[in-house]
Specification:
Blueprint: H1 25-32, H2 36-44, H3 51-64, E1 82-87, H4 96-108, E2 112-117, H5 122-134, E3 139-143, H6 149-158, E4 162-165, E5 175-178, H7 181-194, E6 200-205, H8 208-223, E7 230-234, H9 240-253, E8 259-262, H10 265-277, E9 287-291, E10 305-308, H11 311-326, E11 335-337, E12 341-343
Parallel strand pairs: 1-2, 1-3, 3-4, 4-5, 5-11, 6-7, 6-8, 8-9, 9-10
Antiparallel strand pairs: 10-12
Helix pairs in contact: 1-2, 1-3, 4-11, 5-6, 7-8, 9-10
Length: about 350
């Protein structure tokens, strides 16, 4: 329903917290100078109000970021025992480990997991956040940072416990479990440089987190005096075909490239296929490093060197934070950097 229809160190910080309780229908009524029943009617039966009153109520709703509670009723239990997870995509394996861990940990405490897809789109994310808040879950887990200002504002105003994951920021909405994408880019560049590579490329998704890795990777190469990194972007979510096309694009521009970082293991698998298609030996002619350490990574030919991200620990910690908050128990840390590692195999 929309408004009109009704392993690295980190610096501790204090998460951004809303200053007031979430707005209630009575607050909107006072702001609009009408009764609570009129606000309810504006949300559920706008055709019953005159245009001037309806607009006044809608303006109050928008200014206070009021989200109606879709579960409000005398039959509602004191707790929904429901946690929502918002993912950018439901396809591809990159978030699978995190979601499985989160679901398992929540189930152990009697909570159910609801999953929504944001589609790497800020407007779609804000609409989804608004719909989920209406259902008043016990907690919300974001895979990545909230991308839209509207979505962030809605989450802050809701007072629902929120855990952002898969990234680090000094402006978290509430709680945070993640790792530094900038540090990953720097670490992979250092890995290649230590092995003697001077001509670097990168096949990357075009989402915001991937672009942070690209920038850090390129900056690290530049700082080491290497030529400019050649980057091929592919639409998110990643596909094997995107990895093939990305590597082909890089080699067409700069055949001298000897090392390629791919922003997911799926892209890296595509790069391995394309390298074989072009008659290149891996790693002798071309080193390839992926990201995610997916189950298939150890079984590629050759086995894939990749950045290991501990999705299991992220899911467990996110669940622990949500459950502790709902039970008014203390939380050890509201911001956790779990770091990452490079799993060395044969491809790079």
């Amino acid at each position: 329903m929309d408004y009109d229809s009704g392993t690295f160190s980190h610096h501790p910080h204090q998460p951004v917290q809303p200053t007031d309780r979430p707005s209630k229908i009575q607050d909107v009524a006072r702001a609009a100078g009408v009764s609570a029943m009129t606000v309810s009617r504006a949300i559920n039966h706008p055709e019953r109000l005159n245009p001037e009153t309806l607009q006044r109520v809608r303006d109050a709703i928008a200014s206070m970021r009021y989200v109606p509670n879709a579960l409000a009723s005398g039959l509602r239990l004191s707790r929904a025992r429901l946690v929502a997870a918002l993912l950018p995509t439901l396809v591809g394996p990159v978030f699978q480990e995190l979601i499985q861990s989160l679901d398992h940990a929540l189930n152990q405490h009697g909570y159910q997991l609801m999953i929504g897809r944001t589609g790497y789109d800020a407007a779609q994310e804000a609409d989804l956040i608004r719909a989920i808040i209406q259902r008043r879950p016990d907690g919300i887990v974001m895979i990545g940072m909230a991308a839209s200002e509207e979505g962030r504002a809605l989450l802050q105003a809701s007072r629902i416990p929120v855990v952002e994951t898969w990234d680090l920021t000094d402006t978290a909405i509430d709680m945070l479990v993640g790792f530094s994408h900038s540090a990953i880019g720097q670490a992979v560049a250092a890995h290649f440089i230590a092995k003697g590579h001077r001509q670097l490329g990168m096949v990357s998704g075009d989402d915001a987190r991937a672009r942070v890795r690209v920038a850090a990777y390129a900056q690290a190469a530049q700082a080491a005096g290497l030529p400019e990194v050649t980057v091929a972007y592919t639409p998110a979510p990643s596909t094997l075909g995107g990895g093939r096309r990305g590597l082909a694009e890089i080699l067409a521009q700069r055949p001298e490239v000897t090392a390629v970082f791919c922003s997911s293991d799926t892209l890296a698998l595509g790069a391995l296929v394309e390298a074989q298609h072009q008659g290149l030996r891996v790693p002798e002619d071309l080193a390839v490093v992926g990201l995610g350490d997916q189950e298939f990574a150890k079984d590629t030919a050759p086995p894939l060197t990749t950045v290991r991200l501990d999705g299991t620990r992220i899911g467990q910690l996110a669940a622990d934070m949500i459950v502790a908050r709902t039970l008014d128990q203390p939380i050890d840390a509201q911001r956790v950097d779990i770091g990452f590692s490079i799993t060395q195999r044969s491809s790079g």
